[in-house]
Amino acid sequence: MRVLLTGAGGFIGQAIGDQLRARGDEVVGVDAFIPQAHRSEPESSEGMHRLDVRESADWVDLLRGVDVVCHQAAMVGAGVTVADLPLYAAHNDLGTAALLAAMGEAAVGNLVLASSMVVYGEGRYRCPTHDLQAPGPRPLEALRAGRFDNGCPCCGKVLEWELVSEDAALDPRSSYAVSKLAQEHYSSAWARQAGGKAIALRYHNVYGPHMPQDTPYSGVAAIFRSSLERGEPPRVFEDGGQMRDFVHVADVARANVLSIDAAAGRGTGSLAAYNVCSGRPVSIREVAAYVADGAEVPVEPTVTGEFRSGDVRHIVAAHARAEAELGFRAEIAPEVGLAQFATAPLRATTSS
User: Fold this and answer.
1) Helix or strand or coil: residue 13?
2) Residue 184, helix vs strand vs coil
3) Angle 249-263/11-22 helices, nearest 10 degrees?
4) C-alpha 167 chain-centroid distance
5) What is the pLDDT along the chain (352 residues), one digit of tens a residue?
6) Dist. CA 130–CA 5, nearest whole Å
């Protein structure tokens, strides 16, 4: 199979490319190497096409003979201020639209898209008395007072978190989240208009070897690791009880490979979305402890009580659909993978 892989020089893109080539697929790797994602080009960039995904005219020749496009290229990060909006819209919204237009011109009909859990906004919550509830953003006065849990809008009781399935309401709450949902919408429209086949993979918290360190793309596991390497205990926001799903990059890559095969065999004219997660919820405090254990540093994480406005309290994914329809189930448990991550090689962060 011939696969065009955007973002091929990135953390997740490299892992996908490695797995595809290992099974004998031909990979056409493309990356713009934007400085926000790459402080230096990875050693494996030799032979990779350096193109901006927004320039659709440059893509058509590369797309000739391609069976599936695996679209990983995106501007990521929190995107918490309005000043971020043009940047995310340009790279993610316009970039995806331009790529889809080029796919139409080259008659490539299969797409696997990297999406994100951030399209859900808050997770899924239930009140013991009033059943399912959809809490709004947590009030600043409550956060400042150390009341971090979501309360029931009806009675004020603490809401209990539940797994979020792919049919949950979508409620993006940052520039990045809005752009990822826009990518899904563009892909869905393309699938209908072009008779294409599209799969969107909603990644949860991805970590693993060759993750960028000390950049806006780092992720909390890499931030904890950096603290330990400086001889400092990891600093955990809120009370550390925030529940998340951490999924190893090798599992994410395998989900993409399975999706590439599934895209080639699905019906036309639609987009299907899947959570890509470990299926093993962990608290942020546990994440810090697992990384510290792997580093063999006998320190307890510092629970700061600090918070970031706009952060969600709990977001944990249901994995049943991906297992049933893609045959994907994560193989690396967070307590194992996060401990290994403490000493895994990371991407260089100095400019070349």
Assistant:
1) helix
2) helix
3) 60
4) 18
5) 999 999 999 999 999 999 999 999 999 999 987 755 555 555 555 568 988 878 767 788 899 999 999 999 998 876 557 788 888 899 999 999 999 999 999 999 999 999 999 999 989 999 999 999 998 889 999 999 999 999 999 999 999 999 999 999 999 988 899 999 999 999 999 999 999 999 999 999 999 999 987 665 568 999 999 999 999 999 999 999 999 999 999 999 999 999 999 998 766 789 999 999 999 999 999 999 999 999 998 889 999 999 988 789 999 999 999 999 999 999 999 999 999 999 999 876 543 3
6) 46
How many CA atoms within 13 Å lie on the side-chain side of 11? 31
Give the number of C-alpha atoms closer than 13 A to the C-alpha of residue 286, restricted to the C-beta side. Answer: 15
**What is the rounded distance in angstroms from the CA atom of residue 184 to the CA atom of residue 342?**
33
Q: Which of helix, strand or coil describes residue 6?
A: strand
Q: What DSSP designation does 74 have?
A: -
